[in-house]
Design goal:
By secondary structure, the protein is mainly alpha-helical. It has a single domain (3-101), classed as Serine Threonine Protein Phosphatase 5, Tetratricopeptide repeat (Alpha Horseshoe), CATH 1.25.40. The chain has six helices and no strands. Helix 4 runs antiparallel to helix 5 and helix 4 packs parallel to helix 6.
């Protein structure tokens, strides 16, 4: 069974598992299916705004697509979420990505 199938199996048991959903998006990126990855991350963050790590990856994906403003917006949202969660390292990574792009 490949990784995507296995992750989907896990999601059948717990569709709200943000960690598994994030991992699934990463697998789609590896396959070059960035639109599916984007959809997964956008849905994940709409349902779980505290999934701080996904903001960075979604922002980087959008950067790779040349979508600067949406990437910057996700970085900003991620910084807010990281600050609220007290995750200084994640905040700094998001701030760095934001500063580099803006």
């Amino acid at each position: 069974m490949n990784r995507i199938e296995k992750l989907k199996e896990f999601l059948e048991k717990d569709p709200a598992d943000s960690f598994v959903r994030h991992a699934l998006a990463l697998e789609y990126v590896k396959l070059g299916d960035v639109m599916t990855a984007r959809r997964i991350w956008e849905e994940l963050l709409a349902q779980d705004p505290a999934a701080v790590g996904s903001y960075y990856h979604l922002g980087k994906l959008l950067e790779s697509l040349g979508e600067v403003e949406p990437a910057l917006e996700w970085y900003r949202k991620g910084m807010e979420a990281a600050k609220a969660a007290g995750e200084k390292r994640a905040y700094n990574e998001l701030q760095g990505a934001y500063d580099e792009l803006s």
